[in-house]
Design goal:
It is a single chain. By secondary structure, the chain is α+β, with helices and mostly antiparallel strands. It has helices at residues 12-16, 21-24, 29-56, and strands at 65-69, 78-82, 89-96, 99-104, 115-117, 122-125, 130-133, 139-141, 150-156, 159-166. It is 22% helix and 31% strand. The longest helix is centred in the first third of the chain and has 28 residues, at 29-56.
């Protein structure tokens, strides 16, 4: 058996397989349908995964941690602490005789450490001149896309206790 029908004809494999690049650019309906079906199945599976995570993943419970004694910090003073984990650095500022606020010390732009500027009355990120309101942690100026996460503080027997973290919320 020969690979040629007639000696003057082309080989059989050239009839079966296209070697012309112009023909390879086109997608058949079957290939297109297969691609759309697999992509749709992938999207459906991804949405099921997200749905399952919302039902089965619990919101984190934050520990109660004493961060300072009442009156320990002077008005306009600052105390640094870690909450809820040792790698999460926070800043506590006494803004008035009976007012304290605490925020994550990590800038929401590129995670540089923010510090309190008492002269300006704001939290400042020195990396890219991002400024945050001391009242609610909202962005005043610069590239940070979100407000600073606020640490929920409660008073308990003359102590300030951190009870949780509010992310992306004011007040």
């Amino acid at each position: 058996m020969s690979l040629f029908r007639n000696p003057s004809d082309q080989p059989l494999w050239k009839d079966e397989f296209s070697v012309f690049t112009a023909d390879e650019r086109y997608v058949t309906r079957r290939q297109f349908t297969k691609f759309l079906s697999l992509a749709s199945l992938g999207m459906f599976a991804g949405n099921l995964w997200i749905l399952a995570k919302t039902f089965f993943v619990k919101t984190p419970e934050f520990p109660s941690t004493v961060v300072a004694e009442l009156g320990e910090i002077p008005v306009g003073g600052v105390k640094l602490f870690t909450y809820p984990a040792p790698q999460d650095h926070c800043i506590l500022v006494r803004t008035g005789d009976d007012k304290y606020v605490a925020y994550s010390q990590k800038c929401t732009h590129l995670s540089c450490a923010v510090y309190y500027s008492a002269q300006q009355g704001r939290l400042e990120c020195p990396c890219h001149q991002g400024y945050f309101s001391i009242k609610d942690g909202s962005v005043l100026q610069g590239p940070p896309p979100r407000p600073l996460p606020r640490i929920v503080l409660e008073r308990d027997a003359g102590k300030l206790v951190a009870k949780g973290v509010k992310v992306g919320e004011h007040g």
